[in-house]
Amino acid sequence: MTEISIRAEEIFRIGGWPVTNAVLLSTVAVLLLAAGALLLRLRLALLPARLQAVAELFLDGTLGIMDAVLGSRALSEKYLPLVATIFLFVLTSNWLGLFPGVGPIGIVPPAPEIGHGSIQLIPLFRAPASDLNFTIALAVISVLAVNLLGVVAIGAGKHFGKFFNVRSPLELFTGCLEFISELVKIVSFSFRLFGNVFAGEVLLVVVTFLVPYLIPLPFLFLEIFVGFIQALIFAMLTLVFTAMAVLGHDREPSVEHQKA
Amino acid sequence: MDIEAAKSLAIAIVMGVGAIGPAIAIGLIGSRGADAIGRNPEAAPKVQTAMILAIAFAEAIAIYALVIALILKFVE
Q1: What ipTM, to 2 d.p.?
Q2: What are phi and psi for residue A20, nearest 5 degrees?
Q3: Per-residue pLDDT band at A80 (split at 50, 70, 90)
């Protein structure tokens, strides 16, 4: 059975920086997205071609969902870059991780690293979200951005007043809870994505080991679905937290505002 | 009981116990969602979105247990 390692393996070093296989694949994802964006920008036309039509469809749907949460198109367009970038990046890296050749193609380590008498392959690529560093980085970015946007939108005093408040003992207590929940957000964001993607990898390895042909197929479909749902959830939660931060306490965001 | 057996047992218990709560939660969410769609089929897309989000939250609890189990299993 293929060896499963919970941490990404180092492929090479640039200077003193270790470059792991997860970093390599997320770089591929970034390059793909950048190339797609450039291609789209170059061939922008009033009468949309196929690629542009798909992009416009995606943008329209995203803005529609954001309108329902934020309540206005102007706000949606303001926070679109953060939410849509997270969605596209997580989606691309999740789906790239399912590509054939991501696991099996690799390099054989030099002699001293071969242990237990069997030759272990170090995969050249690895699904980025199956490395905890990737998901923690994304979670920290998301939570920091939410707080920053909150400060910009309603002012530092009002935003941090949510956490540190000495007007009454009760508000002091709820402030503490709010502060803790902010830290817990990072943990739950990162572990949700990491757990889902890493569990998917393990599931695929185990199923392929048990029955090599045909049976892993439905599980691959499941993983495609899970990759999409997790990207959606990461972006949705960022959106909802942003809405809570920028709208303040007076206007709670709600899904009921949705325009038909 | 040697340490290896204790570890295997711990993994099984973590995953088994950790899956109970989320299983109940997902069952409840799914049944209420189906109820809601049955009563008001036009609201199906809205209900589905909220349902899938809520299921993902409930599922996250099981995923935490899974992460603990995986760490126990694969980290030396």
Answers
A1: 0.70
A2: -90, 170
A3: very high
Flag if B67 and A194 touch (Cβ within 8 Å).
yes
Q: For residue A51, how far is the Cα from the chain centroid?
A: 23
- What mean pLDDT, rounded, does chain A reach? 83
A260 CB neighbour count, 10 Å cutoff:
3
Distance CA A103, CA B74 (A): 18
What pLDDT does A112 receive? 54
What backbone torsions phi and psi does residue A115 show, to the nearest 5 degrees? -120, 165
Give the integer Cα–Cα distance in Å for A231 and A86: 8
pLDDT, average across residues A137-151: 93
User: Which residue stretches of chain A are H helix?
Assistant: 21-42, 50-70, 73-96, 132-154, 156-161, 169-210, 216-247
A to B CB pairs, distance under 8 Å: 38
Give the one of B52, B60, B70 whose C-beta lies nearest to A192's C-beta: B60
Residue type, A13: R
| pTM listed for this prediction | 0.82
CB A70 within 8 A of CB A250: no
For chain A, the maximum distance between any two Cα atoms, rounded to a whole number of angstroms, is 67
Contacts of A202 in chain B (CB under 8 A): 70
